[in-house]
Amino acid sequence: MRDGLAREDLHASVSDPASASMNFLNEVSARFPDAISLAAGRPYEGFHGTDDLHRYLRTYLAHLERLGLDPEQRQRHLLQYGRTNGHLGPLIARMLAQDEGIEVPEQAVMVTTGAQEAMVVALRGLCAGPGDVVLAVEPCYVGFTGAARLLGIEVVPVPETADGLDPETVLAVARAVRAGGRRPRALYLVPNFANPSGASMPVPARRRLLEVAAEADLLVLEDDPYGLFGLDDEPRPALKALDTGQRVVYLGSFAKSCFPGARIGFLVADQSVIDRQGRRTLLAEELSTVKSLLTVNTSPVAQALVGGFLIESGCSLRTALQEKTRFYRRNLRTLLTALEQSFADQPGVRWNAPDGGFFAVVEVPLTADEGLLEISGRDYGVLWTPMSFFHAGDGGRRALRLSCSALEPAQIEEGVRRLAQLVRDRAEPR
Amino acid sequence: MRDGLAREDLHASVSDPASASMNFLNEVSARFPDAISLAAGRPYEGFHGTDDLHRYLRTYLAHLERLGLDPEQRQRHLLQYGRTNGHLGPLIARMLAQDEGIEVPEQAVMVTTGAQEAMVVALRGLCAGPGDVVLAVEPCYVGFTGAARLLGIEVVPVPETADGLDPETVLAVARAVRAGGRRPRALYLVPNFANPSGASMPVPARRRLLEVAAEADLLVLEDDPYGLFGLDDEPRPALKALDTGQRVVYLGSFAKSCFPGARIGFLVADQSVIDRQGRRTLLAEELSTVKSLLTVNTSPVAQALVGGFLIESGCSLRTALQEKTRFYRRNLRTLLTALEQSFADQPGVRWNAPDGGFFAVVEVPLTADEGLLEISGRDYGVLWTPMSFFHAGDGGRRALRLSCSALEPAQIEEGVRRLAQLVRDRAEPR
């Protein structure tokens, strides 16, 4: 190996184009540390401190004591290997019932090492053969398309509208896939305040999507990291809450509601699985083998942190997280107002007005590629994400994603002013 | 989905035979909770308490402070998303240098969600196409063969001898694979006190194996969870310590040295990777894309626990873990003595005498299958693991693995007595 391994001999996922793009973004961010980053979609850092770690652990241990575990059992619960599907099923099921009206047995919940692992588990379990493909909204969160590439599963894009996915388009794509001799196993989407587009699906479209899933014999992978952070209190029912036909596998994350460093996510899969002898199990239970082969089980200490957080929240994040909700609302409103102020008079610039979440998309009269991003960081002191990063083909070339989750309002305003200057200086005819 | 999903439509890894076997073992254990488990290979639980969690966190935070991180940076380090390959590279590199004489740059270390994820990352990165296969010692740790199945990678078994893998057999198998038009990318083995066999490779065979790896153009995946727990202080150099040709990717685990609940493992991959433009990177850096698509990054809180443990150990586990080493030595000696006492006069029973680790193998004059295990648990109050679980073919049918890591000596002795009674009662002519 002294001569080295040839990079082209490594698996395609090593050279994943989205990851290469994200690496580029990280490099640019590192080279221009003083630039305002409207690229970073991470949660704001002011909500939790390291003291919380100790308190959450103590809260969870006290909870275990109330459940009747003696000191030796509590120690084993946190320090030993544990149940493959994790310990938080009861608390998460309670949270889903209270916050989302999702009623599932605790055995349908699998705790994962972040929502990323939940995607890998669901993809791997559902796609069995070379003809099994998944549909996914486009533009799409790169972690999903990358996970599919890792497993050699083809992703068929379904273009998004301003109102999120159009169910009839989903049906048409699914039928075309089936007509081509392949089997569409699932559809991936983020129905609330999507990453990257910010788009949300209206309630009637959600209901129709579930009908379409049944017609096309699809499961729906519903990813919902931002659902708590709507601009208003209007109910936006999760697909899983409307899912009377058990078509939806729900993917959840505590990275935004609690904090990312716990790396705790989960999936809810209450579908019946039937073997040839007619025995029935829950899909979440069947998927535990896949989970065990990825990471054995999710760190029970990390689970305990989120467990403590859930207990302190009374298992209702909608009630307990009002400070966070207010913060993200204010930031998104600030972003949308700043866009209005900076771009209202600028020809060829359009942006959407999401109802919540961390992101908005701006269409600009120039090619928003890596080269422009570098100029933007170096000469204008502002970073953003090219929308082309979220497309498999050549879509999104004249659009960019702005994120407002990690900043203070004044930074958002200044960042948008700098972006407007860039666009004014470099606008090019189409 | 009201009618349910057909289990046969799920991916083959869901029905992984080894996992099915392990599930059976867990079920039997749950049904006979009073049976002595010589099946459980988990570490003993008496070494760490929940107070350690708080102390390790504080130790690691103090370490970050000494490194010059201000309170905000320390908070971000633990609670935010973090570097894909983790934070513990410097501490792990120091540990490997002190304990193993392995000298690698900290950038060659990737922190993973347990050694299981390290296996998935290495397998995925190295096996690019359908003709890429891996060789693995047989009998083999089921987590490895299962991870390969998850990724659709074929595992070609290389039979183990009493002295671990024979390098010439490895060479012959690798050549046969290549002659068959496939490409052997790597060889998996546990050179120290293997799971399940307990076998270890003599030092000359280790050196020869590295020559063979170069001749056959193989990488070696060296899994070393038990290396600290030799019966004596004789040096057993890791393959990675002898690896002047950068043929070895080293897989490590803190589940046995620290505790399993942190779910922290790592891989060391200091191989050069060269792209078509001649640019060089380290394999660990290239593999970070794969890692990011599995779990984004390993929980920095969980890393902090192991970080605190490493700092308190002066990054030398061989020095710091003497209590654990003494405990496991005593247990293995107890197991071997008990086997001698219970089985010396029994015809047809043979066992090996490993130089360390958690396991020994007993050959018995009867079929040691799931049926016998159930009888053993119910009527004899002792559990063990059929060796057939660790074979792809029909090997290991009249052998069982005994583990002595999680028990007190008196339990080990009683467990072996019960096992001897079972074998006496049910011995059958071959």
Description:
2 copies of one chain form a homodimer. With 430 residues, chain A is an alpha/beta fold. Chain A folds into 2 domains: 11-40 and 322-426, Aspartate Aminotransferase, domain 1 (Alpha-Beta Complex); 53-320, 3-Layer(aba) Sandwich (Aspartate Aminotransferase, domain 2). Helices cover 43% and strands 15% of the residues of chain A. Chain A is built from 16 helices and 16 strands. Chain A has helices at 17-31, 50-66, 71-79, 89-100, 114-126, 142-150, 167-179, 203-215, 239-242, 283-286, 288-295, 300-312, 317-320, 322-343, 370-380, 409-426; strands at 5-6, 36-37, 109-113, 132-138, 155-159, 183-189, 219-223, 248-253, 264-268, 272-274, 280-282, 350-351, 359-363, 382-383, 385-386, 399-403. Chain A has a 7-stranded mixed sheet, with helices on both faces. In chain A, helix 1 (17-31) runs parallel beside helix 15 and helix 5 packs across helix 6 (142-150). The mean pLDDT of chain A is 95. Chains A and B meet through strand 1, helix 2, helix 3, helix 5 and helix 6 of A and strand 1, helix 1, helix 2, helix 3 and helix 5 of B.
